[in-house]
Amino acid sequence: MSVINLRLGAFAAALALLAATSSGAFAQKKYDTGASDTEIKIGNIMPYSGPASAYGVIGKTAEAYFRKVNAEGGINGRKINFISYDDAYSPPKTVEQARKLVESDEVLLVFNPLGTPPNTAIQKYLNTKKVPQLFVATGATKWNDPKDFPWTMGWQPNYQSESAIYAKYILKNKPDAKIAVLYQNDDYGKDYLKGFKDGLGDKAASMIVIEESYEVSQPTIDSHIVKMKSSGADVFFNITTPKFAAQAIKKNQEIGWKPLHFLNGVSSSIGSVIKPAGFENSQGIISSNYLKDPTDAEWKNDAGMKAWTEFLDKYYPEANRSDIFVMYAYTVAQGLEHVLKASGNNLTRENVMKQAASIKNLELGGLLPGIKVNTSATDFAPISQVQLMRLKGETWERFGEILSDDAGG
Fold first, then answer.
1. What domain range is 393 assigned to?
2. Spatial distance between the Cα atoms of 409 and 400, rounded to a whole number of angstroms
3. What percent helix, strand, coil does the chain show, rounded to 5?
4. pLDDT, tens digit, for every residue of 23-79?
5. Which of 41, 63, 187, 201 could form a disulfide with 116 if both were Cys (CB 3.0 to 4.6 A apart)?
6. CATH number of the domain enclosing 263
7. 151-169 per-residue burial string, b: 16 or more CB within 10 A, e: under 16
8. What is the per-residue pLDDT across 229-288, written as a single tens digit (0 to 9) for each?
């Protein structure tokens, strides 16, 4: 009996050893710089100061969201260490902060850095270093270029698609329009302008009667508005960041210019644009969105909106709840949480990008019904649909179908 017992014991020990080595193979942990058994370091760059400081709330909301994630146990047991720096929307400063995040802080990835010129300034650097520039906070079309920039991915619908949708609306509903365009003189403004002209097609040259550009360093765009009114234009496409968008709305009212007004989606926040410009001055403006507007009573009993409200109550009570950028940040942070969860114990930069490029029909509580997140190895545009909306009273009223446009890829 003792021999049999010994043999059984040896067999059991061998099985246990085999089980241990097998599970070890399946649960093998892989880390790049910025990840460990206990922590995931996430870098971020935001304009907390300067001409685009209205967007700073995005970084503050993301920081609050990752505090929530950590309080609930982290991601696969790891706490998020969120390191966010101010670049004042100045590309040279962005370069400096990106280098600091990668070379000093040693982050795993740079998440949701804001602005087209700032991100353009760091795109080559991060791709050379093979550091994910993930869910960039700008809709420039260039972020969807997995062949040349495999470490850069956008998030929101791209600017060219959005502006082509406005162009098609004008062609259908106001075919004799005389159009004035005001745009920021950088990659962001030119991307929107290109999509708009592509959308108008061969009518662009005759329909656009005046194009005015402004520099982000200018204190005001008032003189451009006066010039556009004198052109006789009856449609205004307003391609501006929040500070200048509010100025344009106010100035239109002041000089009595009442064109059909299209406002790019990146400046459609009730809290940081429309309210400061005056609700009475903003009636009838058309824009677009892919997010639920927190000021819209339609979402009062919506499960996604309730979860957002609970999050703010607990982790960011001082947030301006009429600011769509708070909803934007909450949603994109959930997108990163999804990617990191999917990465499991393989927290290499390569695997993070692989998971980010493998999102299928992801529904998030802050997205409009019917809009889902989808990516692939050849398509780095997570969200590609919007719905038109018109300002009525103190909120946006959505109209028409969920739209997408293939302009710009």
1. 159-289+389-398
2. 23
3. 45, 20, 35
4. 444 458 999 999 999 999 999 999 999 999 999 999 999 999 999 999 999 999 999
5. 187
6. 3.40.50.2300
7. bbbbbbbbbbbbbbbbbbb
8. 999 999 999 999 999 999 999 999 999 999 999 999 999 999 999 999 999 999 999 999
